[in-house]
Design a protein that fits this description.
Blueprint (H helix, E strand, L loop, with lengths): L4 E4 L4 H10 L6 E4 L16 H13 L5 E11 L20 H11 L9 E12 L2 E14 L15 E3 L4 E2 L5 H7 L1 H20 L1
Parallel strand pairs: 1-2, 1-3
Antiparallel strand pairs: 3-4, 4-5, 5-6, 6-7
Helix pairs in contact: 4-5
The chain binds inosinic acid.
The site of inosinic acid has 18 residues, from strand 3.
Length: 203
């Protein structure tokens, strides 16, 4: 039997909510980091989503007796040469909030015309076990940065991320709608397939 416990290596409430929905139905007891303050905190020092994602999953897998799923994600804006990228969470400084990050982003993009407001969310999810990487998975979704926030759902930059196929900002989508098309949804779909196949092989 495959490990029956899976740790989500994050304390971000928005991410935990989405990840739990995306992993529904898999034969795991899913836990999140809030329950394990004794594991300490991983410092993200990588220059890429992959480095941070791998580093985080490895770090917690040295303490946790099961599978660890870590993800690093963020927003890359074309007109800002890919910023904020791996700095998405702390874009406005050490006391960053979603609102402050959005304000900074909109200030930097003031006057930038629509075609140059292209952006994408990227997510790299890594599975690790007992100090070893099991596998990494990537997902991304493209859109445009609006001139002002629109909508109240989701988290982070969702209110300013416009998704053309649905003609709405991510913050106007229901959780299920966002999960079907988002960077995290796509990466986690791959995780689901991988875990389901491994579980079938081992049971
Ligand atoms: P980290 O992966 O914890 O370093 O943080 C990623 C940051 O990227 C979040 O705090 C958000 O600011 C942003 N981000 C990642 N995924 C999403 C998303 O699905 N919607 C909106 N913002 C996101």
């Amino acid at each position: 039997m495959i490990e029956s416990r899976l740790l989500l290596a994050t304390t971000n409430r928005g991410k935990i909510r989405e990840l739990k929905k995306l992993l529904l139905g898999l034969p795991f007891k899913i836990e999140s980091l809030d329950k394990y303050p004794e594991f300490g905190r991983y410092r993200e020092t990588g220059q890429t989503f992959e480095e941070n994602s791998r580093g985080k999953s490895l770090f917690y897998s040295r303490s946790y007796p099961g599978l660890v799923l870590a993800e690093d994600s963020g927003l890359e804006v074309e007109a800002l040469d890919g910023q904020p990228g791996v700095y998405s969470a702390r874009f406005s400084g050490s006391r960053a909030t979603d609102e402050k990050n959005i304000r900074k982003l909109l200030r930097l993009l003031k006057g930038v015309p629509w075609p140059r407001r292209r952006a994408r969310f990227v997510c790299v999810a890594s599975l690790a076990k007992q100090g070893r990487i099991v596998k990494c998975f990537r997902g991304s979704v493209s859109g445009y940065i609006l001139n002002e926030p629109d909508g109240r759902n989701g988290f982070g930059y969702d209110p300013v991320f416009y998704y053309p196929p649905l003609k709405k900002s991510f913050a106007r989508l229901r959780a299920e709608e966002k999960n079907r098309v988002s960077h995290r949804g796509k990466a986690l779909e791959k995780v689901r397939h991988f875990l389901a196949a491994s579980w079938q092989r081992q049971s």
